């Protein structure tokens, strides 16, 4: 059993006068709380991507250096700084995947979350958690489909009779599933990070 106060550490980089920023530590509960506060699907996706990207940016420095302060300061920080080449989720993930530092399923899920968020935002769509497109999206996330009990419960509710089906309850179940997927991806990133240090 995993304790609920498990700490998932990641660095949140901010660029202030060219200097990269501060360490931010969040517990799993705080991450869940931040995601749960998002009422709209687009807001939820943006917050999830922000959290995941912060975790990716925390992992990246270990790919390049073995605690060499000069390399970290003069090579890695500029790469990760705002408007640096690795200040992009897709580029950073592709690099980690190409170097064999993250699993294919983790790479695919985070890219999928990022692209779905971009699609919802570009379409200026008012998609909600209970919409058909959202179900199609989660059906392609390994972090959800590999949790057979969760995915089965979502499918059963989606295809249940009208008396059992409740749009709000179904939307909340989707949101919970997505939140569990994000925490699972964060654990994979922090486990990869620990394994490769």
From TrEMBL:
<dbReference type="InterPro" id="IPR038026">
    <property type="entry name" value="MtlR-like_sf"/>
</dbReference>
<dbReference type="Pfam" id="PF05068">
    <property type="entry name" value="MtlR"/>
</dbReference>
<protein>
    <submittedName>
        <fullName>MltR family transcriptional regulator</fullName>
    </submittedName>
</protein>
<dbReference type="InterPro" id="IPR007761">
    <property type="entry name" value="MtlR-like"/>
</dbReference>
């Amino acid at each position: 059993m995993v304790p609920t106060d498990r700490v998932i550490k990641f660095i949140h980089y901010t660029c202030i006068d060219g200097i990269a920023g501060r360490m931010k530590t969040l517990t799993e509960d705080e991450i869940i709380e931040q995601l749960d506060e998002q009422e709209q699907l687009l807001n939820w996706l943006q917050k999830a991507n922000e959290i995941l990207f912060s975790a990716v940016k925390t992992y990246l420095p270990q790919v390049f250096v073995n605690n060499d302060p000069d390399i970290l300061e003069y090579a890695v920080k500029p790469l990760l700084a705002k408007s640096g080449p690795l200040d992009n989720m897709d580029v950073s993930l592709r690099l980690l995947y190409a170097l064999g530092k993250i699993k294919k399923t983790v790479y695919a899920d985070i890219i999928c979350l990022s692209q779905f968020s971009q699609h919802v935002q570009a379409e200026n769509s008012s998609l909600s958690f209970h919409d058909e497109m959202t179900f199609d999206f989660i059906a392609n996330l390994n972090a959800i489909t590999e949790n057979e009990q969760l995915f089965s419960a979502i499918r059963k509710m989606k295809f249940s009779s009208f008396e059992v089906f409740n749009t709000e309850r179904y939307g909340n179940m989707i949101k919970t599933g997505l939140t569990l997927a994000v925490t699972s991806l964060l654990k994979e990133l922090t486990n990869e990070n620990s394994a490769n240090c």
